[in-house]
Amino acid sequence: LTESSIGQMLHYLHLLLDIQNCKKIYSFSINCKQITFFYVEKESKSNLYNYYKSQDLDMFNNYSETSLPVDMIITKEEWKNKYLNEVIWKIFTIFLTMSDNFYEYATLNINPRDDLFDCRYMIRKKLGIGLTSMVYLLEKKEDNYLIEDSPHYVMKILKENNYSEYFLNEIKITEKLKQFDNSNKFYLFFQDILSPLLSGKYLVYEKELQCIDSLALIQSKQFIDITHYLYDCHIIHCDVRPKNLMLDRDTNHIKLIDFGFAIAYDEDDDRGTVDIMGPVMYANDKFLDFHLELLTGKGFPYYHYERTFDLACALNIIMSNSNADMKRNIQSINILPDVQKRKLESLKFWQNLKQTNKHYSKLLNLIKQLDESDESNQSSSFAVLKDEIENFSTTEQ
Questions:
Q1: Residue 234 in contact with residue 268, Cβ under 8 Å?
Q2: Are residues 298 and 269 part of one domain?
């Protein structure tokens, strides 16, 4: 292989890696005599790529065209023992039969008999993967001439059928959010489910949203507006974290996605006691304390979620994006391998911030007051909270 052909092959692997949204991608080049392995790797939380190429490995030992006449009088087994480079062929076999995890390959939970848009679309690329599902961008096929069909859709596909309760819950919560809407804010804050196909096995959304790495001041205020909407709807998302915040470029507004773990409670403020779920790193002190007790074998895995639970998570996410040092500290905690240590360090981090940062402490007190205030003062409390976040952001700049 020439240097230019190697470069071209690695470039194609790079493009495929982006389309498939994987961490690594592998390939090989083979001719009659040699094999060469390649792979491309994307660095974590970076746009940098590493490119690797093996040596050119001989597939046969001491074999040439002059050996052909002699080979006519020996058996296949003798030929194999004489010329075959057993080590290289074993490597090649292992490469071809590696486990699914090695290739980051995941089969899709799709039945061939399922009618998915009547085969008018194809999967273009993977957008993300979560605990219960995988998300893909669908692209209209070239031979699809239906004008009413959108060029693209987004489809969330269930990993396993026993996770269907989370899809069905997302459908139910989404409908409840839409029913409450009296000012068209639903379509600004959330994604509508266009087609809950086949008993909740697939969910289809209108458009692809963009990931966001940080929150500008206006987006932090939008975030508070979203939690205000949830608060008024008597819904707790239970999984508010950075990966569930996306940007809609058409409206330039952030959206909160993935309501599979969400809970709804009645007008009498009865939230009940439900299974522990959702975020841990960005939760409040009470939740982190409770979670640590569970990890040490104390208590039962049920939690009475506060009505302001999502708001507290939103505040912690906003704080973690307020400056580079804080963001680095959060990331260093997130990568700790030991779960118990990760929870303990999270608790220490937020408790220390409350003691050392007067703005954060004031914002927490505002949330506490919101829990204690009557219905008539709650809207003004959210407005004050947004003003205080703006004051904090101005101070940090």
A1: no
A2: yes
